[in-house]
Amino acid sequence: MKDELQNYMDRPKRYDNIDGTGEMAFGLMALGYTFLNYLQAVLPEDSMWRHGFASMLLFFTVILLMFGLILWVPKAIKKRITWPRTGYVARRVGGKSWWTAMVGAAAFSAVIAAGVGCLMRFDRRHDWISLSWMGAAAIYAAGYAFWIYRMERHHPWKWLVLLFMALGLLAIALIAPADFVGLWRPMLLFIGLT
Amino acid sequence: MNEQLRAISELNRVIHEPGRLMIVALLGAAKECDFLYLQHETEMNKGNLSSHLARLEEAGYVEIEKTYRGKVPQTLLRLTRAGRAAFGEYRKGLKAAF
Question: Which one of A144, A161, B28, B54 has the minimum C-beta count within 10 Å?
Answer without folding.
Answer: B54
